[in-house]
Amino acid sequence: MKITTIFLAIFFSLPVLTKAEMKLSASVDKETVAINDTIRLTITIQSSNSVKDPVIPAMKDFNIYSSGQSQNISFINGKFSYSLNFSYVLTPKTLGKAQIPSITVFEGNKQRFTSPIDIEVIKPNANTSANSPAPSTTASAGSLSSIGEKGGSKAAKTRQTINETGASAPKTDKLIFLTAEVNKKSAYVNEQINLSLKFYTALPLINNPQYSPPKLEGFISEDLPPIGNGQVAIDGRLYYYNEIKTALFPMDEGVGIINPAIINAQIQSSRPSADPFDSNFFQHFFSGIRQGENKQVESPRLKVKLLPLPEKGKPDSFNGAVGNYKISAMFEKTEVKAGETINLLLTISGEGNLKTITMPALPEMPNFKIYDTVTSLSMNKTNDIIGGKKVFTNIMMPRISGEYEIKPIKFSFFNPKTKIYNEIETKPLKIKVAKNGAIPPAIDYYQNSTGEYSQIKTISSDIHYILENKRTPSSVKLSRKLASALWLNFAFLLILLASVLFAYINGLRTKNPDMLKSKKAYKKSLKEMSLAANLAREEKYPNAVLLLHNSLNAYLSAKLRNNIGSLTIRKVITEIKQKNPNIESKFTEELKTFSDELEMLRFAPTSINKEKIDTLILKYKEILKFFEKEFKQ
Amino acid sequence: MSNNLARQYDLSRQRREQRDNKQFFNCQTLKFSYNKLFLSFFIFSLLPMASLKAIEPSPTELYKNEKFDQALTIYERENIAKPDNPYTLYNIGNCQFRMNNLSLSLLYYTKAFNLLPRNADIRHNLEFAMNQTGQKLIQDGTPILLHKIFYFFALGELKAMTYILFWILCLLLTVAILKKDIRSKLWPIFIYSIALFAVFFIWGTMRANSRFENAAIIIESDTPILSGPGKNFKTYASLPAGRIVKIADIPGSVYVQIGLPEKGLKGWVEKTDIKRI
Predict the structure, then answer these.
(1) What is the block-wise mean pLDDT of chain B (277 residues), using blocks of 10 residues?
(2) Which domain holds residue B226?
(3) Which of chain B's termini has less CB crowding within 10 Å, N or C?
(4) Do the Cβ atoms of A321 and A354 come closer than 8 Å?
(5) Domain for residue B219, yes or no?
(6) How many CB atoms lie within 10 A of CB B47?
(7) In chain A, whose CA is at the least distance from the CA of B157?
(8) Residue in B closest to A490 by C-alpha
């Protein structure tokens, strides 16, 4: 139930976010800046769709450099949010009012704009230079501050800078040139190397030089802000320089190549020897509109030896991280109900290429269902060292109630300074899971013989194996026999019909018993006649006579549907005549004679013999035959 | 004299007895020899059979050693002897599957499923083979439990149950008609029986019209569906091998009218292109 709720929440929240408009904002850390200071511009994008990097327009008032980006994805309490922060460092070019123009961000085909931001660029003073975050900029500011009211001490600093930098400056007779340097000649895979590109010029530039960064082979790069600038004396000639730094991370062992960077500059041909101490030199350096000469300079091609990471001492948990890191983990809540989701936040922070760090393996958590992991990254580049923190949010759901201790999560990295592998781990985490009504069954887990839980993984599927020595199931046999016995249905139907018929007859019998008696009277009398004959054979003549007498009475009672036992033969004949007026009188006379004879023999049994009985039976038969015919009519 | 006679008599009797005994023993020996001969003959006559049995490996062993064609021959022989055994049909399906005859394996799995639909192995292999041919055992939107209940009994079992319930109903009615005094006691049983009869009757009717009854499997790939029973008629669709179709009509000896209700297709195919389930 809870799983369904989570997915429904994600499912329904995504379209909402999709439909929701992208939120775009731009902010600066200060609105008034000294000419020798920098501004940090942050562009924040909140969107659920994929967005492209902001399009930075040409800025006439500032030089702009990327300072990295960070993203934040979170899924907390069913709410899904996603934001991207792009950071830039801006160095002002001219004094006075300046403006950061609208910055465009594309979301598919739609484009959004930030509002322009007005900035006031002022002359440097003690306060602003003290607040300046970048040392290189401070040096540059020092040189500019020499033209300020309170710049005496700064001028001295500038001179110091000149002397110091002059000691390491390249010797050349060129008026404009580009140098490239790396801080390491060899580096391990994924170890940070800083590339410094310096553009020197002894001539004032008419407009902004166009810079093409070097093509890198075997590296991934990250901009390092801010730009450094300053002045240096080389062979007695004063040069102004701008420095661009980039952090490089080797991808694989071998040789990494940094191809030449190119700068196209327009120099003022008419004023080849500009006075570097002119108070307006900086403005002229970037914004001159005079006619000039195009000049292209290239940096040298550099090679760096890329060393493989040592195999010795490599921990099992090592996943390619190089640098120096710390790890911590925590549950958002320490108490949760079974079936509810909870976030486990794993934070890795330190120095190194955090972008390449992947989620460390979680320990076995058989009673937890683990869903997706979302990642957020925030980077900093303090002192030209890439670092920051990466937070992995693991969404999980406890299945069964109880108190659990999560084993430490291990993470290892190679420290290029010490040249050894370090394995660090989180502290054990405790969580209390309370009972809940609906707990989804742990169907995809099983417990092995050692009592540990493992997840079942389906690799592929196939048909099941043959079934050996199996006989035809009796249910199949029996059902086939029964299903083919259609005739049995008719048999049972016949039984039913017979019972209906029987019931009908029975019903008739119970409704009109006299009629049934009347119908059966003849057969009954015939039976009694044969019984009388038997009695005569046994010489039980009185009994035979009595039987015949009773038989006649019963027959006539049945036919007349009246008990004639108490009636005289005359009354019986009258009733017969009433029922059947057309009856011939000779038959009624015969009946009377037969009845009288029986009466007489009943009371004078001595004159009876076998022949007499037989004669009576014959006579009785004839009378009955006649009356059967008569009563049927 | 009498003693001599008596001695002679005794001697002759002894001789006769000895002769009789000898004959008896001879007879016994002969009888024993005949029995032995018969037994030997019987044993020798059985030997070839026994040796054949011993030589012929079991289909299980053959299947295990991936000699699927040989295992198939034995299973097919068993199927001829006992055509109602769903396990033999299932094993034939397995052999056909291993020999890459997907449509024939599907045919035998379906036959086995029709006889014993509640067997998990048969169900699994049928579903697997159907998936391989782009078909689904359980149509989209049908709950699995409902499908399993619907296919719990074979059609024959449903028929048998309907018949039995009909007989029970007939007997109950007979007793109720003849015995008025227990009619009231029989009434609840009668209601239950008639309800069960109705359930099984409807269930059986539905199963008789389900996709695996009165159906066939296309065994030739790209079988053309014609708009009439003849080659002169237009071909308007073709069916891949392994597709389960309903047989609508069998008008002639060459062409069969088939239908695919879920696709709304109906047409004629050659009889040799299909195999009836």
Answers:
(1) 53 62 51 56 54 68 92 93 93 94 93 94 93 86 92 93 93 89 88 94 93 91 86 85 85 82 84 90
(2) 215-276
(3) N
(4) no
(5) yes
(6) 11
(7) A479
(8) B167
